[in-house]
UniProtKB/TrEMBL annotation, chain A:
It comes from Phlebiopsis gigantea (strain 11061_1 CR5-6). This is Aldehyde dehydrogenase domain-containing protein. Belongs to the aldehyde dehydrogenase family. GO terms for molecular function: aldehyde dehydrogenase [NAD(P)+] activity. It holds the Pfam family Aldedh. InterPro entries: Ald_DH/histidinol_DH, Ald_DH_C, Ald_DH_CS_CYS, Ald_DH_CS_GLU, Ald_DH_N, Aldehyde_DH_dom. Keywords: Oxidoreductase. Residues 30-491 form the Aldehyde dehydrogenase domain. SUPFAM superfamilies: ALDH-like (SSF53720). The active site is at residue 268.
From TrEMBL, chain B:
It comes from Phlebiopsis gigantea (strain 11061_1 CR5-6). Pfam families: Aldedh. This is Aldehyde dehydrogenase domain-containing protein. Belongs to the aldehyde dehydrogenase family. Residues 34-492 form the Aldehyde dehydrogenase domain. It comes from the Eukaryota.
Amino acid sequence: MSSTFTHQFDTALFKGTITVNTGLFIDGQWVDSVSKETIDVINPVTGKKLTQVAAGDANDIDIAVKAASRAFKTSWGLKTPGHQRGRLLYILADLIEKNVDAIAATEALDAGKRFAHAQREVQGSVDVVRYYAGWADKNHGKTMETSEEKFAYTRHEPIGVVGLIVPWNFPFSIATWKIAPALATGNTIVLKQSEVTPLSALLLAALVKEAGFPDGVFNVIPGYGSTAGQALIEHQAVGKVSFTGSTFVGRKIMETASKTNLKRVTLELGGKNPVIVFDDADLDQAVKWMTFGTFFHSGQVCAASSRIYVHEKVYDAFLERFVVAANSIRQGDGFREDADQGPLVSQTQLDRVLGYVESGKQEGARLLAGGTRSEGTGFFLKPTIFADARPDMKIVREEIFGPVGVVSKFKTEEEVLELANDTQYGLAGYVFTQNLNRAIRVSSTLEAGSVFVNSTAATAPQVPFGGFKQSGQGKELSEYALEAFTQVKAVHINLGMTL
Amino acid sequence: MAATAQISVPGTDRKITVSTGLFIDNQFVPSVDSKETIECINPATEEVLCSITAASVKDIDVAVASARAAFNTTWGKNVTGFERSRLLNKLADLIERNAQELAELESLNNGKPVRLARDADIVDSVGCLRYYAGWADKITGQTIEVDNKTKMAFTKHDPIGVCGQIIPWNYPISMWAWKVAPALACGCTIVMKPSEFTPLTALKLSELVVEAGFPPGVINTVPSLGSVGGAAMSSHLDIDKVAFTGSTVTGRKIMAAAAMSNLKKVSLELGGKSPQLIFESANLDEAATWAAMGVLFNTGQDCCAGSRVYVQDKIYDKFLPILVEKASQLFVGHGFDEKSGCGPVVSKVQYDKVWSYIEAGKQQGARLVLGGEKRTEKGYYVDPTIFADVTPDMKIVKDEIFGPVLSVGKFSTEEEAVKLANDTTYGLAAGLHSNDAGQCMRVSSALEAGTVWINQYNLLNNNVPFGGKKQSGIGRELGSYALEEYTSIKAVHWNYGEKLDWPL
């Protein structure tokens, strides 16, 4: 008993039909929420409603957690050996790959992405799922030497039911970043996707079912953070929450965890990521990477290169080129060939970013590009550049999460490193220089979980990603992500000690 | 111009087509300078299945050149872990798709039951390829803190290079998978010499290598006599590593040749005379089952066959008849008979060898409690044979027989059991059966073997390493450990802050 959303695409970049179940996915079934409430899904390009999905709340979370608990004890966890868990993940990856275009179209429609970007992200998700499929039977513990009287070893066990809370900027990708290591290590899942972009996770659920995962292993509850999200974080039977979103909400999650069952928490939070462009940088390349890093997905990226420090020798030249690049970004519907960039995801986001733009103007930063809404419908903001920013400005200190680059000047390496590290955040850092010794020195000094030299964020499944300081705790991607979903048990077998 | 043979599948009107040339650079080709062929015999019927091209020394050169070129251009560091993973998974899928035909061909050439080839050997081989596909993009080195002010150090796990792989005739498909999977996962290229007794499935698998999409030269298949191709590979100056599974005698030659040529890296999986210990607390029925299986699986043609069983004296008289009964339950028959639990031994040479040991056992005074009679029908059949009351000096106790011939002895104490078990130059595997946990730990710790089974035997898993101590071999296969055999560590020291005081 579930309704579906069907949408026909007849665009230059994609023609076809998508069908998405719009219920909650619990225990292998599509169901309405207990309350029968729904959430409207808005198209950010037009501002109009696309459909509605069931809205889960605490009751639905409880039902889902019970199903996940049961599955963990009976058909998943250590009941299904690693190589079989891996096999199912490979099958899931194949199914995602088979359906790349339909998933990408759904994602682009729901989140306001360019279709081509969504395709790349979904293909990237295939790689991530395959990568973790390979880990499923390789999560080794250790045997360690103590004495002849004791045999000691560790077991790397799954935690149990894990709660995954994913955001609206990369809905499908980030969901797969979390579910792949969680499932590979034997955990069962209750996933709450963002109420703003619920559709692609529902497609993922359908594919998980088709792949043959046992019922209850993967459950999806679209809902609001304050209701469904809160219930998941509070739940006594959920052993771990992995969250990607704002630092503000991340704090509440940690607090709630501490007040309930001390569940373990992985947080991927905000960033105010510094870019340092030295005078020997390849300026053309730096501008290209910056344009990508600052304006990609309208700057709604936790690792966006939003705080840019340029050496005084090349400051003007950089700005000139950066402004040209920003002004040549064409905005529009992501299914058009002539659009490079889509809208912000919602009215709320647009209003927030406009607020920062205002503050930048008021605090005296020099506006060189953009700064206003684009004409027409949809939540479009023109690519915006502020120059001559000072460290005390709001636009320098706070995460904007919009297509706004904030540029400042520096003289010396020591000075810029201090400026770069002068932030509560620590997600990513970017260095542009041709001097490799300097690149190594600077990357060693930047207080960030990922440092990119001569590029902006291009993650790879084998390389960990996660922030220092208030950008979060824990890592995603790579082998390190397994630790987030594993608990270590030490076993001591007495071979000869007697009392 | 691929020369092929058509091999009939018994009980059907199907034929299996096998290319009979050498597989080099993704193509089947004739020898460059030789007309030598190898006859492939069906051990159940003693008849010739077909003849295939035998690689000469020059052909080995051509194959190595092909593997080297691929390593330098399309494989090695020129291919990502993801791509290697994708191709290995694809190959696994294709083998799974063709399991029935491959099992039939394996049975025809090796004698083992089709059902076991398909449901055991091939299932495990597919799993092995998938297991290593999962490792291909996870080969990590270390970054190492030296002095943050001056230097950054890190290691890279490079692929070793061109690997010569020499595999035996007892598990042709499985041994192929055990070698191919980790080597390719790490980025190495391969010159593969299957056994001259059982080359057919390696040639058939080569077709799937092409279908999967591996670039030419990544795997080359060159059946040949050990004394020709195997020797050439062991002493080849452009092979970086040789991996061999086979007899200890040949293993020695390979290591010597490697040393005298280019000090190529060597890994060896050699023979064994693996013991199983039955302690008085064991569940006798289960222990007897594992003991029978341990020496009879694959008609005893198993490097880790549990060919010696030592029974605690208190339960000896009770255990022996149970063991004899279990062993006689196994139906030794034709590979295409669904009832068969194992088939004939692989060749006339093996058949004669095994029978000579049976005769030696009789002559040296061991008590024959099962078998010992030759069949009259065609086929290299040896029925389960058990000698009891053996003593350590007997040939059947010391030498590896590689057939369904079990020696059973007695012990009193745990210490004596361990001593008897370890009294061998081999060290491949061992089994112990006991319900005393402390004893299980003590004895498994004391046994000098690369694999110890407790209350089990012979069942391996792709993610658990396998290999010998002592003269049973060097290196490990399966598990993460196999990766070490195919990687070569490079340490990089990157100075960015240290100037040298000169002169010193």
